[in-house]
Specification:
The chain is an alpha+beta fold. The protein has 2 domains: 40 residues, no CATH class; 158 residues, Transferase(Phosphotransferase), domain 1. 47% of the residues lie in helices and 13% in strands. It has 11 helices and 8 strands. Helix 5 packs parallel to helix 7 and helix 8 packs across helix 11. It is globular. The protein starts with a strand and ends in a 5-residue tail after the last helix. The model has no long low-confidence stretch (mean pLDDT 87).
């Protein structure tokens, strides 16, 4: 991420405006010795291919997001940040909100940057996973959804995990439980990208989520989905087929291979 410093006599808004031409959608600035993050408005939409896969497979993981203009997406995210904060969920502190960007107080590094370290210990790994999971559970227990609950969309600072990147929304006809299930799937999928020397205990992670949310039906849904795509899991392990798959798709099949073997208790 790019970082920009304060110039004597310049206001925060002037400093941001001066640097909006950067290609970075999110960038940091230093103002009066404090670090802030600037997020520029960006549209939300799902590609035609994404919609086609959802039509064919009808998997909750790939429910298309609602199409919004940059301005609509920014307005939605600002309102959601404020709403979740009122519900007792840690979200970024908004310092300045304009039509095409907003400025947030620094809320740390994303969880992904911690758990993807090759030399991470099990103790540290589960510390960060537990903290992020606790925040996700708070969102779900408040009858809300995140929309992009990968590890990279939670940040950590001074023992607190913040939910960020909340611009995604969905058609009003989509049930909240499906969106929460999608959140949990995205969270689990993001964990397959760790580079640790040990394997994660997905039974532990799933059971911890279930204990905090009481969404007990999710475990059976995970197993049913894994069984539903057994053929694709098998194909993904064939060398000639595997080489045509992107990294995210490989991670998807890796996760469901693990889920298929979960304890059925």
């Amino acid at each position: 991420m790019l970082g920009y410093g304060f110039v004597m006599g310049m206001s925060l808004e002037e400093l941001v405006e001066q640097n909006l031409s950067t290609s970075q959608e999110v960038f940091s600035i230093i103002f009066n010795g404090e670090k802030y993050w600037v997020k520029k408005a960006r549209a939300t939409k799902s590609s035609l291919t994404h919609k086609m896969y959802y039509f064919l497979l009808h998997l909750e993981l790939i429910i298309p997001v609602e199409k919004k203009s940059p301005h609509q997406a920014l307005q939605f995210e600002v309102l959601k940040i404020k709403k979740l904060k009122k519900l007792g969920i840690d979200t970024p502190q908004l310092i300045l909100v304009k039509d095409d960007y907003f400025v947030m107080k620094n809320c740390g590094k994303n969880i992904n940057s911690y758990i993807r370290k090759r030399d991470i210990t099990k103790e540290k790994m589960y510390y960060y996973i537990d903290k992020a999971l606790e925040t996700l559970c708070k969102i779900h227990n408040a009858k809300e959804y995140h929309g992009g609950a990968q590890a990279r969309n939670f940040t950590y600072l001074d023992g607190i995990v913040y939910a960020i990147d909340l611009e995604d929304s969905f058609d009003k006809s989509v049930d909240l439980s499906l969106l929460q299930y999608r959140d949990f799937l995205l969270f689990l999928l993001s964990l397959t990208k760790t580079r640790a020397s040990f394997e994660l205990d997905y039974n532990y992670i799933i059971d911890k989520y279930l204990l905090q949310t009481k969404n007990y039906a999710f475990k059976q849904k995970l197993q049913r989905m894994a069984s539903k795509i057994s053929l694709f899991i098998f194909l993904s392990e064939l060398k000639w087929f595997n080489r045509f798959l992107g990294r995210d798709v490989k991670g998807f099949f890796q996760l469901f291979k693990i889920l298929k073997g979960l304890d059925s208790e």
